[in-house]
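Justification of resources, computational component.

The compute hours requested in this renewal are based largely on the per-chain cost of generating structure records like the one below. Each record pairs the submitted sequence with a full structure-token output. That output is archived, and it is also reused by downstream analysis tasks.
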Amino acid sequence: VYSTLDKLNIKYDRVDHKPVFTAEEAKSCVTGLIKGVRCKNLFLQDTKKNYYLYFITDTKKADLKLLRDQINSTRLSFASEEKLYEMLKLTKGSVTPLGVVNDESNKVIVLLDKDNKDTNVLLHPQFNTTTLSIKYSDLIRFIEYCGNKYIEV
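The structure output for this chain reads:
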């Protein structure tokens, strides 16, 4: 992740912290240490076995029925931890849209909360003991560089 960020000249701020496994834990751990919008990540699949990484502001509730309609998908559900590791080489608690760097087949579609368009977003660099702050537009550049599709919802 860091070498790709550097290659793309994407600037980021970084803070190291104790391991966090949920958005709620991250809230108490990084608030005041780094600037940006806190987000959560949901690894989803539809009934056709399409895979999505939903990157949404952590104060929002994920409405999977509404999301399904927005992306013209079939019913959405949470994908297994095994599938998460198989596709993105990530484990529960360390999910991040930056994980698309590991998606050699470019099968995972990243769903981005468009309300974050003009902000810095907070995310893990593939492990849950560090949080990075990067511009939303730079996150899109990273995803595009990796060859994955993204949809702003």
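The chain has a mean pLDDT of 93. The beta strands are 13-16, 37-46, 51-57, 76-78, 108-112, 120-123, 130-135, 150-152.
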